[in-house]
Each structure stands twice: as C-alpha cells, then as structure tokens.
Amino acid sequence: MKVKRIFLSFLLVLVTSWTMAQSLYRTSVGELSFFSKTPVLDIEAVNQKTGAILNATTRDLAIQAKITDFQFPNKLMQEHFNENYMESERFPTTKFAGKIKEDVDFSKPGTYPVTAEGNLTIHGVTKPVTVKGSLVATANSLQVKFSFQVRTADYQIEVPTLVFNKIAEVIAVSGTLNLVKQ
Amino acid sequence: MIHFLYSQRWLPASVLFLLLFLGTSPWQGVVAQDDLLSMLEEEQSKEPTYTIATFKASRLINGQTIETISKNHLNFWISHRFGAVNSGFIANFFGLDEAKIRLGLEYGLTDRWLVGAGRSSLEKTYDLYTKYKVLRQSNTVPITVTAMAGWGINTMPTGYVMESGFTMKFNDNIERYSYWSQVLVARKFDEKLSLQVMPTLIHVNKVEDPSIPNQLFALGGGGRYKLSQRVTLSAEYYHTFRELKGDEDGGGGAFPYPYRDALSLGVDIETGGHVFQFHLTNARGMVEKQFIGQNVGSWGKGDIFYGFNIARTFSLDKAARNTHK
Questions:
Q1: CATH number at residue A116
Q2: Which residues in A lie closer than 8 A to residue B229 (C-beta atoms)?
Q3: Is A2 inside a domain boundary?
C-alpha cells in the first residue's frame, strides 16, 4: 500500500512536470534590434542570439540578451556601445521578465495582438514596462513580434554632450522571437 | 487502482489544491518568470563572453598592443615626435620647431588578423607588419595573446651620420633590412586596469659598429589605467638585454654604448572615431627597431620628446556604408 502511494505520487510529479515542460516555448536565436536616428547619424545594431522562453500555461515570458552580442556594422561603434554606454562588463545582459496579459489559447493557430507587462532591465536599471506586440501561433511554434521605445536617460545611460547630436534620446527597439515548442 | 485513488483521496486533492493555489497567486508569477530567466542565464553562460577593449588602440604608445582591428576596418595613424624638450628655446623652441613623423595604415583582414604599413621620417624608414590574435581573454581564458612580426627598410643615402654619431654605410639593399617579432600577452584585470608584457626579438642586417649586436632581445612591460570613460593613462617600458661586445674590455668600442631603454608615459583621449595619444618619451623612433634598439635619448639628461599619435578608424564594411558617420 505504502509503495503504491509513493509510486503514485512520483507518477503525479512526473506527469505534472511533463505537462509543464510541454507548455514551454523557447528560442536561443531570437532577434533583438535597436535603432537610433538623429539628423547627423543613424545607428542600428542587431542581436541574433537573444534567448526567450514563454510558458503557455501561465503566459509568463522571459527574454534575455547579452550586450556583447549586439552587432554593429561599425565595430568601433560596437566597442563604444559596450565600453562607454552600456558598460557591458558591469551589466552584461539586458532582460525582460513579465507576463502576457491576454488570455490567448496558444494551441489554437492564429494571429493575436498581445500585450506584455513586466520588468525591463537595461544597464542595471529595472523599470516596469508595457509592450505591445503580435503573436502568430502555429502547430508547434509561436512567433512573437514587438516594438517599443526606450529613453536612454531612464536607464542612466549617459550620453556625453560631445556626441549628443549623434545618439537619439529615444531609441526604437524591436524584436522577433520564433519560439519553438519544447 | 481506482479503489486506491478513492481511498487515498487526500493525496491528489491536496496536490490539486496546492497547484491551484500556486497558479493563481501573484507571488507564483514572479518566481516562475525568474525561473525562466535563470534557464536563459544558464544557457547563455555556456557561450564564452570575450573581453573587449583591453586597450583603446592597436598601439600603446610607441609599441603594439594585443588589439587588432575588426574585419574590413581601416586605421589611419598619424604620429609625431617633436624635438627634445632640452634642445633650447631660441634654437629649437623647446623642440616644437621640428618633428619626426610616421604615417601608417592598418587593415583588418579578419577580426583577429591585421596587416599594417608605415613610413617614418626618422631614417626614412618604411615598415610592414602583421599581427594575429592567437588567444582571446574570455570568461574562461585569463589572457589575450597576440603574435606580431615586422620588417623595415632604411632608405637613407649610404654614409649618413646616425643620431648616435655613427656613420652608416650600406653596400646593398639587403643590408638596409631589419626584422622584429613580438609575443604580446595582456590581461584586462577590470574595466580600468590592463597590463601587458611583450617579449621582443629584433634583428638588423647591418649594424653601425662592431660593438653593436645584430640580434637584440628585449622585454617590454606596459599598461593602461582608465581615469574616466574617455581618458586613459598609459605607460610602456622596454628593457633590452644586450651582449655588449665593446664593453668586455671596458667600453672598448669607438664610442661608449649609445643606446638606452625606452620609457614612455602617455594620456589617451578618445572622441568618437578618433583616439588621441599624447605622451612623453625618451624614444624618438616609432618603429620597433628604432625605439627599442636604437634609442639615444635619456630621461636623466632631459632628452624627453613630446609626441602624439592620432588614430582614426574607418569602416569599409558594405553594411556600414548607410549608417557610417
């Protein structure tokens, strides 16, 4: 009797963890890019190694990207971005932890407008944000697209007066995550 | 089985209740999100994070750093060494009346391999060199190692008098060649401090006097300390290990041994695409063979040269065209 009970609870734990694992959608090659536009200079950088996990059951969403993985066409700019602005040695990642507000059934193929609410951390500063995006659900994958704006001053990213006209105060961030069912 | 489930009703019911409770509590959401983040963290930490910007430029002061330049990027170097500060006000305006100049170009073949060329007005020397980053410092590797090899040709007319006072005669062009190689080893200790050692071997085909060795081994040491995001202090010293042929019998050569170790102190200022390096040095040459091997200046006597290097980086990457400043 006792053995049976232990076995059953073990089975239960196994089944629960299995169903929970089943509801995870994941990528390690998500794309996150930003764009800074001023009359003097346009700067664009792309990170193609952005990691993201979405729990379809709880609709929890986590996104994380390494600062050093942002690729600039001009590598000197990339060095300055890491060294002077983002201080990537002290703050190696940028991350978002939040939840999708809409009660979407991800197992049903279709396109859904979604809103994610959560905490965005850039340059070691965490702020609550609300990001609007779209979600395309297919049989085994979810494509999440979003875009939002970041004010550099909000995250204590110092832009010296010398290059003030080259770097926009508000940076446009966008992302495409092709999440695959685990 | 069914009977067991019914008789042990408390087990699934309580678990179900617990799950339900966890699922609806707001506390659970935060924990779950942090769990997801730590899953990402674990995955991303497996990939190495390479240390960037151990030094601001591919040159520390006179000599090289472990830094190479990125693929398809071009560096233009303008270097000046003015006359000695002790050369007098009337005669030389404390050295500002004259300058030795080196113009140089560096090109990144890959992110780790560069080729460079330059021309110095000191001894009208052309130089070619290549550097390759063999090992990169990362979260698992403690140091960066770069190998460097260079070649130079002295194009002065034969029979000219050197700064050291010797008369140099060339019988053929091969005699004008010199070669040097370095192993540069550096570590970025933190955001501010980077240190480098540079064992160096120099060979000159023709020496100015029998008392001067053709082969020279030197050990350099240097580093930088960042005062702010854009201002950096730097220092560089090359100690030479010579077999003083002339000194065996008490400085038997025609002259006392004329060359000294080079010590340089500098400040780097970075502004966007430029790096300005201002420095004080007892070496006037800007090619390894000159500033390590044939340096006549002495700090003690006040043979201090002020100088500057300006580096400008251009991106020749096609993708960079549209966004390039």
A1: 2.40.128.110
A2: 83-84, 160
A3: no
Mutate to test the interface with A, among B9, B40, B71 (most CBs of A within 10 A): B40
Phi then psi for B159, rounded to 5 degrees? Answer: 85, 20
Cβ of B4 and A8 within 8 Å? yes
A90 inside domain: yes
User: Is B21 found in the same domain as B124?
Assistant: no
**Domain co-membership, B87 together with B218:** yes
User: Structurally, how many domains does chain B consist of?
Assistant: 2
Based on its alpha-carbon atoms, the radius of gyration of chain A, rounded to whole angstroms, reads 20
User: What CA–CA distance (Å, rounded) separates A98 from A31?
Assistant: 18
> What is the full DSSP assignment across B34-91?
HHHHHHHHHHHTTS--B---SSSSSBSSSSB-S----TTEEEEEEEEEEEEGGG-HHH
Q: Pick from B39, B230, B324: which is nearest to A74 by CB? A: B324
Domain contains A140: yes
Query: Would an 8 Å CB–CB cutoff place B271 in contact with chain A?
Result: yes
pLDDT tens digits for chain B (325 residues)?
A: 445 444 555 555 555 555 555 544 444 455 678 889 998 988 888 888 899 999 999 999 999 999 999 999 999 999 999 988 887 778 778 778 788 999 999 999 999 999 999 999 999 999 999 999 999 999 899 999 999 999 999 999 999 999 888 999 999 999 999 999 999 999 999 989 999 999 999 999 999 988 888 999 999 999 999 998 889 999 999 999 976 654 444 444 555 778 999 999 999 998 877 899 999 999 999 999 999 999 998 898 888 999 999 999 888 876 655 544 3
Q: Is A16 on the interface with B (CB under 8 A)?
A: yes
Token pair for B11: 């087990």
Write the residue in B8, B50, B273 that is nearest to A76 by C-beta.
B273
Sheet strands (E) in chain B: 73-84, 99-108, 113-120, 125-135, 144-154, 160-161, 167-168, 177-188, 193-204, 215-226, 231-241, 262-271, 274-281, 305-315
> Does B236 lie in the same domain as B124?
yes
Contacts of B49 in chain A (CB under 8 A): 66, 68, 92
Q: What is the ipTM of this complex?
A: 0.76
Chain B residues 158-197 with CB within 8 Å of chain A: 190-191
Q: Which domain holds residue B103?
A: 73-320
Owning domain of residue A133: 24-181
Residues of B in contact with A120 (CB under 8 A): none
**B52 interface with A at CB cutoff 8 Å:** yes
Task: For residue B96, give every residue at least 6 positions away whose Cβ sits within 8 Å of its Cβ, in sequence order, or none.
Answer: B82, B83
Count of structural domains within chain A: 1
Considering the domain architecture, whether residues B159 and B279 belong to the same structural domain is answered as yes
Q: Is A87 on the interface with B (CB under 8 A)?
A: yes
Q: Is residue A39 situated within a structural domain?
A: yes
Q: CATH code at B246?
A: 2.40.160.40
- Cβ <8 Å between A73 and B315: yes
Q: Is residue B96 part of a domain?
A: yes
